Amino acid sequence: MRSFIILFLVWLGLFSCRNDSSGLGHVMAENLEATWVVMEASRNNRPALSLEKSEFYIRDSLFSTNFLPDTSSYPYSYDGEKIVLLDKAKSVFRVSRKAPDTLIFKTEIKNFDFKFIAVKKMEEND
Predict the structure, then answer these.
(1) pTM of this prediction?
(2) Is pLDDT of 20 > 50?
(3) How far is the C-alpha of 122 from the C-alpha of 29, rounded, in Å?
(4) How far apart are CA 100 and CA 70, in angstroms?
């Protein structure tokens, strides 16, 4: 019985120390700069099919999207976890990395929780 407990503790220790290979975590700012096409969207955990194929435009100093009534570009700050727009509402998009070419954005708009799964749009010169 004692050896079983020791083996279990060793096994537990190995799995608790392994690296997280899911790709989640900080996303470097240079990996954000692109046009991102929404492949899947939800509003309050329900599919929002009308938002699929909408786009986020993130450049070195400006952030905009084509699905909100205000399609203006705004300066933004990025701390590795969230994008904060310098608009009147101080809009916040929480970002997590799923894969090198896929980002997950989460935000709140007019008291609704939104989640976007977007893929990097291939530019013609890529």
Answers:
(1) 0.72
(2) no
(3) 18
(4) 29
